[in-house]
Design goal:
676 residues; alpha/beta; Immunoglobulin-like; 5 domains; ten-stranded mixed β-sheet; elongated
Amino acid sequence: MPTQTILYIIGSGILALFIALFQYVYKTKRHRLHWGLAGVRFISVFSLLLLVINPKFETKESKIIKPVLAIMVDNSQSVNYLNKDSVASEAVQTLLRNTEITSKYDVKVYPFGTQINQNSTLTFEDTQTNITKSLQDIESLYDSQFAPVVLISDGNQTIGDAYEFASKQFEQVVFPLILGDSIYHTDLKIQQINVNKYTYLNNKFPVEIIASYTGNTAVQSELRIESRGRIIHKERVQFSATNNSIILTPKIVSTKVGLQRYQVSLSPVENEKNTVNNKKSFAIETIDEYTNIALVTSLSHPDLGALKAAIETNKQRLVKICSPIEYLETNDNYGLAILYQPNQSFKAVFDLIEKRKLNTFIIGGSQTQWAFLNAIQSDFKQEVTGQYENYQGVVNPNFNNFSVDDFMFNTYPPLTAEFGSIALNVSHETLLFKSINGSPTQEPLWFTFENNSQRTAVLLAENLWKWRMHSFREDQNFKSFDSFMAKLIQYLNIKNQNTRLLVNYESIYDGSQPLEISAQFFNKNYEPNRNAQLVIKLKNKATGQQLEYPMIAVQNSYNINLNALEPGNYSFEVRANGGTHRSFGEIEILDFNIEQQFINANVQKLEQLAIHTDGAAFFDTQIDGLMSELISDNRFLSIQKFTKKTVPLIGIKFWLLLLLSSLAIEWFIRKYNGLI
């Protein structure tokens, strides 16, 4: 306490004494009652003066702080599947019952799956395991203190960074308690299936199957692919201790439109403990792209036969070469129009295409009436010079509408086109630029654009037949050219309908990714509408069960998480504002539990984790050794923490109570003795 404050307190005491003696002794006859009243008055005045001075007193408090022992328990289904759930629960109780542990540590239990769950109980039902993220959560909780970690787990992680390497950055010491043993059992496993999400009707699509084997002896198995209860492919496969992984690439024919589900399986071998991982399902959406295409022309040209032959290599497409009059008579039969070197006779054709909002492919050349073509539409204008030039095509590396990387345009013969510049009045994607005598230009030779709901491709040149013949001379087949044309026709065959309700989803969910569906809803100006009410209605096609959920607004979109849905095939409908706008779709949820793919603990990774964090690994049968290590480890000791606290006199309730009591006593004595 400062000297100045002490002098104030002494002065206050003298002043209080003077006032008390002056009032009750000096001015009155000396009587015992007056001496008592003087004492009470001294206390009142002195207390009041001290409150005015408000001196501050310092106190010290000591507290023993024990280090935290964080017990992380793997709450995933793999622990249950390996029959280690009861072992894990008993290990936790054993640690909590040990008085030496609880007296040395502040013990906290944290079940975890994809992250730690501080307030949850052990259920062993989590479908994913992320050990790295869970350890990072512990570090965040105890960033500024020692908190050794007991990790009770089988070490099998399904998502996240590799914890055995990420652990090099961990600050806390980790003691893994391994649920399982180091014995590797005989096991066949479908490791991975790689397949495209989409295919076309009656097309063959490849399936890449990666299968693995754990064991010491040579074994034989049969791989089957089934669909709708029917075996569509089977073959014998052999494994050994050295040949323990194979890659198979069978091809399957898609024979039905829509989502098609397939199951790949390996027949079990003798003494195989886990047969769940012998099977894996996949699904693919089959699209019917059957299209009637009108090739409209008033000319005879070798390009016509080349185009028809190239496009019809896909059996789902039929090309009809017809005149403008024939097209007008049978226009309802066509989903796409190719306009070859239009002239004045195409006027009604253009009018009809505009009315029906058809996608088109326009091809120009030496017999194109450019003055007519410039007048009938406003998207592009070709300068009319009456002169013609041979142009080489130079691919635009920034073209993104479809892939053209495998087509060597620079090696193909030049095409003949009108000499002169082209003016484009719409946003467009250039496929090929013009090149004259090896000198590239920025003038487009081949380009695409989308105008409202229509897609259009424009080639300003003729003699595509030379390209197809060149493809044959180089490769002894037409595959290169035909594949390129297939990509172009596929792009043009998609109808881009304007809609105010857009729904984004994956057709197939394999269980390893979040099942989320999002939607956007726009107002009449096609601006995001944040105040709409969106509802999704789902129907399980197998059971007929119907479910309905509201979609939650998140910024400019509406989202719904459907991870709780059972595996199966579902149709769904998204409604906006009571059904004024609707969107339909279909999803397939595959029956796949990644936590059931493991047959033993990952001992090696858990031991690496212990080494990188200066801890020690123990098997679940060695819990006594773990407890001895925790008790004897001198790195984790309790610390005594002193807290210095400054308290002002006015904050002490006793002093205020003393003041009030002295005033009350003085008043009572004076009243009782008739001095008031």
